[in-house]
């Protein structure tokens, strides 16, 4: 039995941002139709608290597939040559359970996370949004810049990082004659008059305050995807129309929802719905140019599965990846 192995370079070629945004839109619609099985992810934390290991299984009805992501998360890798998220996605078919592909999870996670924000931004942000603020200066900052540029005419970018030198390097690397990218010394300055705000940090306590946000802004809150992490203060959530990728994940994993709820800053009915429900017409999206919209992203196993399906389908056409023999077939003997 042949199984496709897709490494970093091939995965990046097979999953360009613009295509991945379309894949995420289709995936969100599939979720909204109930055609997926998605348990909450499970993590174990090392005794020294340095890193975590996560298991994220899923079934997807379209394209029909089953599998999961196995990943380590080491936020302390920020100052090393290693990514914070590393692992593999296993893609199986649903007829005989064959292992179709093993795909580099680091590359897919980096792209699909930003692509999900891109799909949400295309559905929720003002059409004329052009001023972008990025909080954080790592890999997700770069991929979110690409995603925002794919769905809106971004003309200016301000970036903030806890490490000012990292922000300066990001601005220097991403800026060009066609796009001005400026590092700012504070979050408040970065988000002032911003139409689009992407939070991509590993903050455990809020860095973005509600009083700094302009009317009509759209926020993609990405960095805090498990309990114990928050990038937004309660006022940000209370003043925004809240959307998410999946209700169950929001209710069980998002302190950016659970803390304001416990404080009484919001009620249980504060969530308008899932982005997929906007895309299939079940609920309203943005209702005015002054409305502040918030997409709370968690990163779902079905996103990895959908991305892996896309990569698998294209790999044969592009002659990329490596095929290897895996045990799985047996010789059938006549009676």
CATH fold type of the largest domain: Rossmann fold
Secondary-structure element pattern, one letter each: EHHEEEEEEHEHEHEHEEHEHHEHEHE
Integer-rounded radius of gyration: 20 Å
- The CATH homologous superfamily of the largest domain corresponds to NAD(P)-binding Rossmann-like Domain
- The CATH class of the largest domain is Alpha Beta
On the 0-100 scale, what is the average pLDDT? Answer: 94
Estimate the helix proportion, in percent: 25-40%
- Biggest sheet record: 8 strands, mixed
Alpha-beta content class: alpha/beta
Weakly predicted, low-confidence segments: none
Give the termini distance in whole angstroms.
24 Å
Global shape = globular
Residue share in β-strands: 15-25%
Number of domains: 2
Architecture overview:
- This protein is α/β, with parallel strands linked by helices.
- 35% of the residues lie in helices and 25% in strands.
- It has helices at 8-14, 17-32, 105-124, 139-151, 164-174, 187-191, 234-239, 247-253, 255-263, 275-279, 301-318; strands at residues 2-6, 36-37, 42-45, 52-61, 64-73, 85-92, 99-104, 131-135, 156-160, 180-183, 196-199, 218-221, 241-244, 271-274, 293-296, 322-325.
- The strands form two sheets. Strands 1, 2, 3, 4, 5, 6, 7 and 16 form an eight-stranded mixed β-sheet that branches. An eight-stranded parallel β-sheet has the order 10-9-8-11-12-15-13-14.
- Helix 2 packs across helix 3 and helix 2 (17-32) crosses helix 11 (301-318).
- The longest helix has 20 residues, at 105-124.
- The two termini are 24 Å apart.
- The relative contact order is 0.19.
